[in-house]
Amino acid sequence: MESLTALVIWIAIGIVGLIVFLWFFPVTLWFQALISGVRISLIQLVLMRWRKVPPGTIVMAMVTGTKAGLKLDPNALEAHYLAKGNVPGVVNALISADKANINLDFKMAAAIDLAGRDVFEAVQMSVNPKVINTPPVTAVAKDGIQLIAKARVTVRANIKQLVGGAGEETVLARVGEGIVSSIGSAESHKQVLENPDSISKVVLQKGLDAGTAFEILSIDIADIDIGKNIGAVLQIDQANADKNIAQARAEEKRAMAVALEQEMKAKAQEARAKVIEAEKEIPLAMAEALKSGNLGVMDYYKIKNIQADTQMRENIGQ
């Protein structure tokens, strides 16, 4: 019984040791690379373990590349992995570029991958151009009519400009700017509606893909709609502004007239008060004249008649 237990323990220790040995010495992976035509030493695979690089990823990438006719350096693949690169993606991109007769080496592909771009997608876009739809672009012709245009931009990835080149947003912004400039230079919106391809020709001549990661193949105007009559709106706004200015000036004049009227009324009241004050002195003066004999009784009655006649005329006039 004890011998059986010891045998089981030794078998378990042997299995564990075999697993540890195969983990440090990936003989199966080395044999797979050997029969696939990939020359890589077992010691190099062990050193990959120590450098925390998965040997399976490197070996499978080399097997895939070798079967596709590429010559890959395992040290370069390992260095790219340690730099946080996508080794399988780079190898697949190199295979696609080789089949499509695109000049792309490992150094360039690794640089594109480390720059944060999908190098495999870039190669695919070089083979199959991509169509980008621009958002609605609003522009105004010289006759004041607003036009809303939509365009389809066909682009192809420029492998040489992927590192440091501008992206799709820059291309769309430049195309939109070109459309605005082209429509704005048209004498009439009817010219643009009759010949929309003139916008494409003008925009393409500007070389909008300079400094970008893409090459513009064509710009097609998909749709043009008529918007507002900006010229008429501006004229209406100007007329309203002039009206408001005229109303303000008229209100200012009215306020000045009201102030002048109030001033005249105040002066009239002041004059009337002076007249009333003077009229108070008339009876005293007449009494003094009668007493001194300078005014006769008949003269007094004549004055009364004149006053009554004047008052009657004033009442009739009112």
Verbal overview:
Helix content is about 65%, strand content about 10%. With about 325 residues, it is α+β, with helices and mostly antiparallel strands.
**Low-confidence parts:** none
**How much strand?**
5-15%
Proportion of helical residues: 55-70%
The DSSP helix count reads: 14
Query: Could you say which overall geometry the principal axes of the C-alpha atoms support?
Result: rod-shaped
The radius of gyration computed from the alpha-carbon positions, rounded to a whole number of angstroms, is 51 Å
Q: Helix and strand succession?
A: HHHHHHHHEEEHHHEHHH
Mean pLDDT: 77
What is the tally of beta strands?
4
Pairing-aware structural class of the strands and helices? Answer: alpha+beta
Main beta sheet, described?
Answer: 4 strands, antiparallel
- C-alpha termini separation: 147 Å
Quickly describe the structure.
The protein is 65% helix and 12% strand. It is of the alpha+beta class and 318 residues long.
